[in-house]
Amino acid sequence: MQRFCFIIVILCFSANHVIYGQKLVATPKPYPFKTVINQIDIAGRSVTLKDAYSIGYEDNALAFYLGTKPQLPNVKYKYRIVENSFEGDKTYPWVYISNNSFKIDTLSPAIYRFEISAIDDEKRNGQATFVEFKIEYPWWRSWWFWGACFVTLFGLFYGRERFLKFWADEEQRHYRQVTELELRTLQLQMNPHFVFNALNAVQSFILTRDSISANNYLSKFANLIRLFLDSSRSKYITLSDEIKLLSLYVEMEMLRFENKFDFHLEISPDVNRFVDIPTMILQPFIENAINHGLRYKETKGNLYIQFYNQGKYLVCRIKDDGVGRERARQIQAKSRKGYQSQGLKITEERLRTFNMIADSDIRFSISDCIELEDEDDNTTDVGTLIEIKFPKFG
């Protein structure tokens, strides 16, 4: 009899508890009733009941009509909202209502989860129900709108910059074409000037019946013209080729003036002989030193050409010990009125144009070397110094 009573007790206890391992877990009591949503109105229009809705920002007026299952009298309701937005999750406090409906029309764009529960007259909570609303942002606040605006603005600015760069490049291209044509024209102007002086020398030898000198001069002149034509195909020439051309030209001038001067060429060991310089830049300076300085000197003169590095520049130094610029001008004014040498003028224009189109900084300067006083206390300029500086790159 005692054993039977113990079994009955165990069965009764098991009806309310579950033995799980060594722990006794109480079985949760079922909700006495369930909270239900009978109807939802969105912006004044009744919609089909669902667990989640996605609505526009202008349709944020919501109305809920509630009930219980099974239906009970004297029931009150409460709800709370869990908001999920960019600022994070926010849970609002419970709101109690006295009837079976409530309305909300102040929701901003975000995701809202409504938790709704009923309370009977015995203060028991029924099973809650849930419904979710996603209120979309207005189109002007959506990510795709701002993305489209960014892409459009970027495209407009990029297109504008490309358009302006295109026209700037076109303008620069035409400008470079014009300036290169101008440089070519100046080179063509230089060629006749040089050839004219050489032919004058040949004519002088022929008139003096010096056929050997004329033949020798013509041979050197032909070789020089070949070198010049080879180099004139480009705006640049290597320093090594320019030195060959200049040396040959000076030899011709020495023949022309019957060894009236000695030629001294000095190249610093650290000078790169394969560096490029503009074609026919140095020849007019040397021609000027010979024709306007050494030519009028009564005694034998000297022409010095020196190449050396000076900081970021390659320097060509041309020096003569002739009569000087002022004395040369006085002599020419008496013997050749109205004539002006165009070599230096053309070279100066070429350098200015070349610096413009090549964004370079080639400089040159001309100065008198020294001043001496003769026996009559007359001050006379002696010699001329020319320095041409080529910027080094790389």
TrEMBL record:
Q: In what residue span(s) does the Signal transduction histidine kinase internal region domain sit?
A: 182-261
Show which residues constitute the signal peptide.
none
Q: InterPro entries from the xrefs?
A: Bact_2-comp_sensor_kinase (IPR050640), HATPase_C_sf (IPR036890), Ig-like_fold (IPR013783), Sig_transdc_His_kin_internal (IPR010559)
**Pfam families linked:** His_kinase (PF06580)
Q: What is this protein called?
A: Signal transduction histidine kinase internal region domain-containing protein
